[in-house]
Design brief:
By secondary structure, the chain is of the alpha/beta class. It is built from 15 helices and 15 strands.
């Protein structure tokens, strides 16, 4: 027989928020905020230069089945283990991805959400929280140009795009279309219902610049890989409406059913906006669902100077917005907005225990792919009430202006090449001084990013544009100055020069160079 384990059990109680622990909550969270504020106050670079192998090892050596530390010690350990090594998006050297510094009122609202822990799937779990979310969604819908629109908060742009395409699929496969039968006599042609198209025959029209979540969503929705048709773009990477019209005509000629067109208001790499109004013209003529992915460019909705760049978005049937990108909200905060509220009901599902069909309460789960769902709307509510929409728009304008200044800096630097223009806040470039070949420049893209990441002072990204790799900056910090960008670019150039010198330095073996 196996002997019984006589190891004493850990009797440390689970520390739950309750009336009895309210003071401990105050102390624990207060101490955590104090430590965070101390680190934020001195954070000057995006992250540390701690080697990745050390980070891996630090995490791996923590025994999650070990003795309990208690709340105070565990939170202090969290500060030392994670916060000390965190990536700080508010520092001027963070230039890599679509991560923004966050609005202080939204951060405070996040603390409220964590402590109260509401779920806005049903009215009885959130009560006034449901009203607040609906009010925020109504406000956002009006900003888009949907006076009677509706929507739902999601975990991010990928989920918003997935739900939009699900709704479009359900609309396209509804067996309610009618076609004229061939006339058998001089009388009027009879009318018969058209069968619902098979999933394999559906077509989604996008471009090579469209976010990858569209292709991933198509697969999740049971569509074949060939369902997503790449539409030709202009030299700036924007969808050509004329090419879209031809692609739809070709699909129909092949017996396929156009399911949706995905236009992008702010492509991830180039930061350009598809011509929304001409694309809407094509969609209206063809009777095809137009979805606009404005995850990046939604900040233009509140811009005092650039709102016109989104002209035509009000003609879409659905729109993705990512508030945790250009509205300066903490992750996560995205909204799928639809022009016709009835479209959201295409994916509704009812459970007797949760949201029965005869419920009179406004249950948000009727509209959502998720059941338990965060009350992310409270963060934007707090930001709007504290600063107003125009303050958000001015901040987004500031990063677009900064990108324009940075383009000028890149073009003026003899060691850098500007790869493509932008309408938003991305900067695509290569390090390629005179005498450096295209092959050498391409080979430097990944090592340059990796070296900068290991050092932690300036963080950049990499991508591929027109078949060639390049480095990428995404500017979302309105406090960053042009002079700070100049210093960051100088550091990028110096790092590239150091890497190239190291790669061409002759090795020495036995006292002889070779």
């Amino acid at each position: 027989m196996t002997p019984l384990d006589t190891t004493p059990l850990d009797t440390t109680p689970l520390d739950l928020i309750s009336p009895e622990t309210a003071q401990r909550y105050r102390q624990a969270v207060g101490a955590t905020v104090d430590r965070l504020a101390d680190r934020i106050a001195v954070a000057e670079v995006p992250t540390t230069d701690t080697p990745a192998v050390d980070l891996h090892q630090r995490v791996a050596t923590v025994d999650l089945d070990g003795a309990a530390l208690g709340t105070e010690r565990a939170l202090a350990e969290l500060d030392d283990l994670f916060v000390r090594e965190a990536v700080w998006f508010h520092t001027p050297g963070y230039l890599a991805h679509l991560n923004c510094p966050v609005a202080l009122p939204a951060v405070a609202a996040e603390a409220v959400l964590a402590a109260v822990n509401p779920s806005v799937d049903t009215w009885d779990q959130s009560r006034i929280g449901t009203d607040i979310e609906r009010h925020v969604v109504d406000w956002l819908a009006r900003r888009i140009g949907f006076p009677a629109g509706d929507g739902i908060f999601t975990s991010g742009g990928s989920q918003s795009n997935l739900q939009a395409l699900l709704l479009a699929r359900e609309a396209a496969t509804a067996a309610s279309a009618t076609v004229a039968a061939p006339a058998a006599s001089a009388t009027a042609a009879s009318v018969m219902a058209a069968p619902a198209p098979a999933l394999a025959d559906l077509a989604v029209f996008a471009t090579a610049e469209t976010h990858f979540s569209v292709r991933k969503s198509a697969r999740l929705l049971g569509l074949p890989d060939a369902a997503v048709v790449d539409v030709e773009t202009d030299t700036s990477g924007r969808m050509l409406p004329s090419a879209l019209a031809l692609a739809i005509a070709d699909a129909r000629a092949d017996g396929r059913t156009p399911m949706a067109v995905v236009a992008t208001a702010g492509t991830t790499d180039r930061g350009v906006i598809d011509p929304l109004a001409p694309i809407a013209d094509v969609c209206d003529l063809e009777g095809v669902w137009l979805h606009v992915d404005a995850a990046y460019g939604c900040g233009l909705l509140v811009s005092p100077t650039r709102r016109h760049l989104l002209d035509g978005i009000e003609r879409a049937r659905s729109v993705t917005t990512d508030l945790h990108k250009s509205f300066f909200q903490p992750v996560s905060s995205s909204v799928l907005v639809v022009r016709d509220p009835a479209d959201l009901r295409r994916a509704s599902w009812h459970a007797d225990y949760l949201n029965p069909e005869d419920a009179t309460e406004p249950n948000q789960v009727d509209k959502s792919l998720q059941t338990t769902r965060r009350f992310d709307a409270l963060k934007l509510w707090a930001t709007l009430r504290a600063s107003g929409a125009e303050a958000i728009g001015r901040a987004f304008d500031a990063v677009v202006d900064l990108a324009a200044d940075t383009h000028t800096l890149v073009q003026a630097d003899p060691d850098l090449v500007l790869v493509a223009p932008t309408q938003l806040s991305t900067v695509l470039f290569r390090w390629q001084p005179a005498g450096v070949t295209d092959e050498e420049s391409d080979a430097m893209v990944a090592p340059l990013r990796a070296a900068l990441l290991a050092e932690g002072r300036v963080l950049i990204a990499k991508t591929v544009v027109d078949g060639r790799p390049c480095n990428k900056l995404t500017l979302l910090n309105p406090a960053t100055t042009t002079e700070q960008m100049r210093a960051s670019l100088d550091h990028v150039v110096a790092t590239a020069e150091r890497l190239r010198a190291a790669s061409t330095r002759p090795t020495v073996t036995g006292g002889a160079a070779r």
